[in-house]
Amino acid sequence: MTPRSGADDGAKDRAARRAVTLFPLLVLAAGALGLATPSLFAGWTGGVPYLLGCVMFCMGLTMTPLDFQGVVKRPWAVALGLVAHYVIMPGLGWLVAHALSLPPALAAGVILVGCAPSGTASNVVTYLARGDVALSVSVATVSTVLAPLITPPLTLLLAGEYLPVDAGAMVGDILRTVLLPVIAGVLVRLVAGRYVDRVLPAMPWLSSLAIAAIVAAVVSGSADAIKSAALTVILAVVLHNGLGLALGYGAGRLFGLGAPASRAMSFEVGMQNSGLAASLATAHFSPMAALPAAVFSVWHNVSGALVAAWMAHRARRTDALEAAASADRTAPAA
């Protein structure tokens, strides 16, 4: 590796750490503002789908054909990640809702978070954890593209016992707010890539601002309910996310993926597109049902950053031990 490439990697690492650190703080501040001054965000709920569309358009702008080639190169690993994501998190959402005896609106909201595709920050956190970024990007891409076909029926199956679920209308919403903006972003990148490259560094921050606005709108819409249910929702989110991270890593190891790929699996399973869940819950259930998604938006970035730091430390330690062992084997006898 040349000094220049090392400097580039260092700059990329610092930028990733800065984004992962500041993003949850920004979202937390937006949630606190929505809770303290709900009247300030009155009427914002109707704009949530458009804000989500902005997030997904930014995601599409960051995609290249290489993201889709990864699916063809390693179909088994991507398929495993996809199945793990859409089995583990929806199942955990249902189990957590039952174990905590959540009220119907909160239970439906937790399950809906579990049925959402991979989180938009999972790739960055995988990079920080020294995981398999290519696999992470491939799984996130496929889970997002397939969300219109998978999220609505899963939500109907698991959350239908709590609240009525219009799966058909939900499909239309996901197509409009997720798939079409992503496709539009990809097409703009293909047509005007030279100009898009100049603004790519701003895309994560634009997405962060849009998600923060979604959280502020959701929290302000159920400010009174939050004060009575906050601890329950936080417990449900922490359990849901923590078990998802652990089981995602375990699934990778169980099916023979290496450590870097298993680290990617951890974040692709445990981190969700909570902005989509908040938008769908607001449109199809109630602001109260969107509360778990708002809390998840903050927590999964905090927990993801912490777990990534721990995984990176263990990976560096393992590499150092292996290097020392290799040096001992190759050293000439005294």
From TrEMBL:
<feature type="transmembrane region" description="Helical">
    <location>
        <begin position="76"/>
        <end position="96"/>
    </location>
</feature>
<keyword id="KW-1133">Transmembrane helix</keyword>
<keyword id="KW-0812">Transmembrane</keyword>
<feature type="transmembrane region" description="Helical">
    <location>
        <begin position="102"/>
        <end position="121"/>
    </location>
</feature>
<keyword id="KW-0472">Membrane</keyword>
<dbReference type="GO" id="GO:0016020">
    <property type="term" value="C:membrane"/>
</dbReference>
<dbReference type="InterPro" id="IPR004710">
    <property type="entry name" value="Bilac:Na_transpt"/>
</dbReference>
<dbReference type="InterPro" id="IPR002657">
    <property type="entry name" value="BilAc:Na_symport/Acr3"/>
</dbReference>
<feature type="transmembrane region" description="Helical">
    <location>
        <begin position="229"/>
        <end position="252"/>
    </location>
</feature>
<feature type="transmembrane region" description="Helical">
    <location>
        <begin position="20"/>
        <end position="41"/>
    </location>
</feature>
<protein>
    <submittedName>
        <fullName>Bile acid:sodium symporter family protein</fullName>
    </submittedName>
</protein>
<feature type="transmembrane region" description="Helical">
    <location>
        <begin position="47"/>
        <end position="64"/>
    </location>
</feature>
<feature type="transmembrane region" description="Helical">
    <location>
        <begin position="204"/>
        <end position="223"/>
    </location>
</feature>
<dbReference type="Pfam" id="PF01758">
    <property type="entry name" value="SBF"/>
</dbReference>
<dbReference type="InterPro" id="IPR038770">
    <property type="entry name" value="Na+/solute_symporter_sf"/>
</dbReference>
<feature type="transmembrane region" description="Helical">
    <location>
        <begin position="289"/>
        <end position="312"/>
    </location>
</feature>
<feature type="transmembrane region" description="Helical">
    <location>
        <begin position="133"/>
        <end position="154"/>
    </location>
</feature>
